[in-house]
Amino acid sequence: QPFAEKSPFANYYAEKSPFDIRHVTPTVMLRADKDSAEHDSGKQMVWMKADGHVDVPQVMHRAMLALGCDQVMMEPVLRRAGLSISTPGISYASIDHSMWWYQDIDINEWHLYVQDTPIAAHGRGLGIAKVYAQNGDLVAAIAQEAMVRVADGVVFSSLPQSATPTAPSPEGACHGLSLVGLGYVATALGFLDFQVFRAFVRR
Length: 203
Fold this sequence. Notes:
The protein is α+β, with helices and mostly antiparallel strands. The chain has helices spanning about 10-15, 35-40, 60-70, 75-80, 175-190, 195; strands at about 20-25, 45-50, 55, 90-100, 110-120, 125-130, 140-150, 155, 200.
């Protein structure tokens, strides 16, 4: 909310997004996190839930989590590289996105995203997240690779290539991936478009 008057992007999140997103670590919405960049760290924590009440089947709760998490998955990459969403000339896009579910999701409840980026090089970065329910249970794990570039050239050339982390357990992976597909297909069809999605949310 404090940034809404300074950025159309921030205004969208504050006024129109169907998700309530609250950063524990400083946001990289308008400016870079120089401290994290100096310490070669992309670590961040974010709380998120539906901005209102959703009464839909469980499969839709999971699809909504797939849609919602896409709002923050690239932030650790930007944070570690000393960039922000508002860096002049920046362009970015998701390349691939995988999720694993371990518990049922209630998108009405707050979920904590514990995020990091283990590697960023050649204009690409890998974002990872563990999603926890309010009771501390791990309910989902996420991995997303993204392209991030700025006007002066390819980013991340100076960042070290950290050891690749152990992949999340394959338990439930097929189920998770099929639901991610559902989320993106639904988005493509317009059923989970941000404006249409708001119809699910009863204020």
